[in-house]
Automatic annotation (TrEMBL):
Record organism: Planococcus maitriensis
Cofactor(s) needed by this chain: FAD
Keywords: FAD, Flavoprotein, NADP, Oxidoreductase
Protein's name according to its UniProt entry: Ferredoxin--NADP reductase
Cofactor note: Binds 1 FAD per subunit.
Length: 349
């Protein structure tokens, strides 16, 4: 036990809630670790990096990708320990009162307090159910639209009919050579205005249809033709494509809370039932972001920041009962003295 590094707070999840928690716990002088399943920080924002975000206070419209960069930079201000590619499989408490987090890597993480910031859990895109499809993933089979530029001047086939599929089709339509949208139902399921925009655009929507076959290029690494079958008429079409985008929703891995032998009260069998001050039913375990549920909960990026600051303040009091309830505001906080001087020097250059 003595060989293990013990953290004041361990944050599970590196999305907006986890990153702001890391910033704020650093501000409160806590020894902080952040554990993220994905190979990068930023959370669910990586699902929509090209979208413009308008509803984060103090940010004029900002590309989500830029917001990720800023959130990460702020989250790392106080140099927390960051473990990427690590899934926390369970949380328990040992006889010494420490939280013990079991990582899928085999590593065990020890902490005096925990902030659960896992959002909607681990999201994995539903894969295209065609044998051998995975071999095209490096070349032109995509599960997200990371940059619009990748699709400029291309013939793109999007499979899916929900909000994201409709959104991507609308964004790609003006820059792509041709956009096909293949959806297995007879109507698109996205927001009404966006569906109308799509139906009135140059994009061709193939409803009641599904992908039945992929034909590879001569080199075998790219999809060249996609066979689409109308499930009502049985008609099959072979469509030449440059890029294929699959948006069939996400599988959600919510096993963390199920596997944890702590008396954590949940809501709708997944969310952590908590207080507006980010406390859960287990002392020492706090929650922030989309995973936290209470009557006043705001499921926005902006809401994650308040949750995070509350969670950190409560965690600080949990491990140091005599600590102040909240941190000194940043404009008067000594933690920034040397950084402010460096910034001033930089501005004078
Ligand atoms: C398409 C789309 C558009 C959106 N647009 C907006 C918008 O314009 N404005 C707005 O305010 N909000 C928007 N949202 C909502 C916003 O993205 C979420 O509210 C926000 O990401 C929640 O942040 P979070 O940190 O709680 O969770 P997440 O961003 O989901 O991050 C949670 C992180 O925890 C990790 N994790 C989960 N389980 C484990 C585990 N066991 N071990 C280790 N790591 C784990 C996940 O990999 C993930 O990185 C949008 C959401 C979507 C899907």
């Amino acid at each position: 036990m003595a060989n293990h590094d013990i953290f004041d707070v361990t944050i599970i999840g590196g999305g907006p809630a986890g990153l702001y928690s890391a910033f704020y716990s650093g501000l409160r002088g806590m020894k902080t670790k952040i554990i993220e399943f994905q190979p990068r920080l930023g959370g669910k924002l990586h699902v929509y990096p090209e979208k413009m975000i308008w509803d984060v206070g103090g940010q004029t419209p900002i590309r989500c990708e830029q917001l990720i960069t800023q959130l990460v930079e702020q989250g790392l201000t106080f140099d927390p320990t960051v473990c990427l590619d690590e899934k926390v499989e369970s949380m328990a408490k040992n006889e010494e009162g420490l939280f013990v987090l079991a990582g899928a890597s085999g590593e065990v993480h020890y902490s005096k307090s925990v902030i659960v910031a896992v959002g909607g859990g681990i999201l994995k895109p539903q894969k295209l159910q065609i044998e051998g499809a995975e071999r095209f993933e490096v070349a032109n089979l995509n599960y997200t639209v990371k940059t619009l530029e990748r699709f400029r001047g291309s013939t793109v086939l999007i499979s899916g009919g929900g909000n994201s599929a409709v959104d991507w089709a609308n964004e790609l339509e003006p820059i792509a050579e041709k956009v096909y949208v293949v959806h297995r139902k007879s109507e698109m399921a996205g927001h009404e205005a966006q569906v109308r925009q799509l139906l009135e655009s140059r994009a061709e929507c193939l409803l009641d249809s599904a992908i039945t076959r992929l034909v590879a290029s001569d080199a075998g690494d790219r999809v060249e033709l996609v066979e689409v079958m109308n499930q009502v008429t049985g008609e099959r079409r072979m469509l030449p494509v440059d890029q294929l985008v699959i948006n069939h929703g996400y599988e959600r891995d919510a096993s963390l809370l199920e596997n944890s032998p702590l008396d954590l009260e949940t809501k709708d069998e997944f969310y952590l039932k908590g207080t507006p001050a980010s406390e859960t039913s287990v002392p020492g375990v706090f929650a922030a972001g989309d995973i936290l549920q209470h009557d006043g909960k705001l499921n926005l990026i902006a809401g994650t920041f308040t949750d995070a600051a509350n969670a950190v303040n409560k965690a600080k009091k949990f491990i140091e009962p005599d600590a102040a309830n909240i941190a000194m505001v940043s404009s008067h906080n000594d933690a920034f003295n040397s950084r402010n001087q460096a910034l001033k020097k930089q501005a004078m250059r």
